[in-house]
Design goal:
With 346 residues, the protein is of the alpha+beta class. It is built from 9 helices and 14 strands.
Length: 346
Amino acid sequence: MNSQNLTSELKAEEKKATHTEQELIERYSNPVVANQLLAALEKRIESNPTNVLLLSQKAMILRRIAKLEQALLVYKQILALEPHNEYAHRSAAVLSGSPLPVSKEKGSFPAPFVAIPNFLPDSKLSALYQATLENEKYFKPSGVGATEPHYDPDKRQSFVWGGIGEWRPFMKGLLRERLPQLCESLCIDTFEPGSVEVKITNYLNGGFFITHADNSISKGKTGRAISYLLYYHSQPKAFQGGDLFLFDSDLSNERYTNANFTRIRCQNNTLVAFNSPYFHAVQPVRLESERFDQGRMALGGHINYMDTEDSTKKTLRQSRQSRCLDRSTVKSATFEKIQKNYNKRA
């Protein structure tokens, strides 16, 4: 077998594995399936209310469908029964926004995050939305890969605009002001920020982003430290899906658990930030139309450590060069294919 055939087979296997994982994640996050599981669990918990395993399963299902306040209450029940339960401690801290407990225990744990509602004044949010629509022609297909960015519709389907004018310095200023608060909430040592990446993405019908991490702890304090997304969209909201899945991650081994995740709803004018090394994904978007103005939009990017500013600028230049495809070259049939697959799995 020649190298070209081997490469093709490996890519086919990777694509198959990716789609299988997406199907599993979507099933775990399906509200109908989750509510059925919760109903069955409740009956078992009624007859055995101190069973920590059953309570842990309940909390996890609640996290998958974004019922985070209810999940927090269950983790508190667990801690009342087992005060030294490390996973419950960390989960409760993440969901309540409290500092993470100091621990030497290794393994897969929930991703810390912070959600700030009403992040922008209404007038500024409206201006951001209008600026997005007025610059639709500048949006290009989003790429994947930090070192060699390229378009891969099996891994990511969205549109991005990097030349966002006045919004870049505006967002950089806000994030730098909020950095101490973000570091405290995410349990990151305060650092002097380097470059701040800022771009606007729009997910239309069938748009998604498979599970990935934006950095690795093996790189130390280099590269991306904090990833952030400021969600916004048309009113009333025209799409479904597009939520953020934050997976329990074993950072030391760069692994994640696809059955264990926290679902973050993409709420209008809410800023969500999380530690860049944690694995995450964007749920497929369901939109009856292909209208650009009705998509799932986000002003997002990354706050980098100071010593990587030059290398980040180089990566951004490479990224812009790789996104040379015109939006019209990406056929809507590709999105329709993804949508059909999503409907089958829902």
